[in-house]
Design goal:
Helices cover 7% and strands 46% of the residues.
């Protein structure tokens, strides 16, 4: 009888510990702070809610690392991007999941993106694991759950049994942080926010291939952030350009994408960064290099301008999002010995990055 009582007590304690970690935060709480928010508290379609007309709201003193976040959301059929911030270090360093009501049913109706230095990166992270199609309804209460653990997350909408999206690699290093809700540029209602804390799980970042593996460039020399005017109408690299730049060695992600926002902050006047690499060739030869960029690029090879292009939002057609991919190709006239390749990449919005790979590496090594 004593054993039974002890077991029952232990089970009760475990249950209480688990349920005590789920925290519901009413919108009347003084835990909320706002950033340029216009909001009113009201009962809407049967739910006590906050009507967020504009801006963002954040919870104070939350150390969310691993666990779940749940909320109800109701929006009109307007172009907007309402969603949830998590693991916020501040308003410029966070993870973000949001919906695009105006893209209901399309492959980009939902989106996960990291934010580094205030710059979202949905143009770099798209497709399976980052964005998914969903038939969003308007003036309707959707229920969303974000289940975060280590470098991964599952995101549920309405169906709490089957995740809509499995984010296989959250891009920011896991660190406890805040939770926020965003209007996304149009009025939105939120209700029933709650979060659950769980013990952190161990995580191991995916290995980055050695530079040149399968032709993929995974290590670059990256410059400081400069004004695009430095390269305006410059068809060859000048001493003044070179003297304006300082360099650090940076690794790409396993995919070969390098997200420049990790290393530098954009301003109104400085929007451009350079990624360079040295190529050692055993003979005079021509090599094809496929690449993708966001948003505007000039390619210099051995000091001479070789290519210029723009893959900005809607530059190809009305559905082209400026998403990065191996969409472009140059043919490099390698000379025997050392060669230098520069990508000068300027950001517009939505992601600032580059990826590049050689079609083959025969007779070539990367320095």
């Amino acid at each position: 009888m004593k054993k039974t009582s002890l077991s029952a007590c232990m089970l009760l304690l475990c249950y209480c510990f688990a349920t005590a970690q789920t925290i519901k935060v009413p919108f009347t709480s003084d835990q909320w702070i706002s950033r340029q928010a216009e909001m009113v508290q009201e009962t809407y379609m049967g739910k006590e809610s906050i009507f967020l007309k504009a801006g963002d709201i954040y919870l104070k003193d939350v150390g969310f690392l691993d666990g779940t976040i749940e909320y109800d959301i109701n929006f009109p059929k307007d172009r907007s991007f309402p969603g949830c911030y998590f693991r916020m270090q501040d308003t410029a360093e966070l993870e973000n999941f949001y919906v695009r009501p105006h893209q209901s049913g399309n492959p980009d109706a939902t989106q996960y993106t990291p934010v580094f230095n205030g710059e979202a990166a949905w143009q770099l992270y798209h497709g399976k694991g980052y964005s998914e199609a969903f038939d969003l309804k308007f003036d309707f209460w959707h229920h969303i759950k974000i289940d975060v653990h280590g470098l991964q997350a599952e995101i549920y909408i309405d169906d709490m049994q089957t995740p809509l999206m499995k984010v296989v690699e959250l891009k920011r290093t896991p660190k406890a942080g805040g939770i926020g809700l965003s209007s996304g540029g149009a009025p939105v209602h939120y209700a029933n926010l709650q979060y659950t804390l769980r013990p952190a799980v161990a995580f191991s970042p995916a290995p980055i291939p050695a530079n040149g593996t399968g032709g993929l460039i995974t290590r670059w020399q990256v410059s400081n952030v400069v004004s695009s005017s430095l390269f305006e109408k410059k068809y060859q690299l000048t001493p003044a350009i070179k003297e304006s730049l300082t360099w650090t060695t940076q690794q790409t992600e396993p995919s070969g994408i390098i997200n420049f926002s990790r290393f530098g902050r954009l301003t109104n006047t400085t929007t451009t960064v350079v990624a360079r690499i040295s190529i050692e060739s055993g003979l005079d030869q021509i090599k094809a290099l496929s690449f993708g960029f966001s948003d505007v690029v000039t390619v210099y090879f051995n000091g001479q301008a070789l290519y210029a292009g723009a893959d900005v939002f809607r530059s190809r057609d009305y559905r082209f999002l400026g998403s990065i991919g191996f969409f472009d190709k140059v043919f490099l006239p390698l000379k025997k010995g050392s060669n230098e390749l520069w990508f000068v990449v300027a950001e517009n919005f939505g992601g600032w990055g580059l990826q590049a790979k050689f079609d083959d590496m025969e007779g070539v090594t990367l320095k």
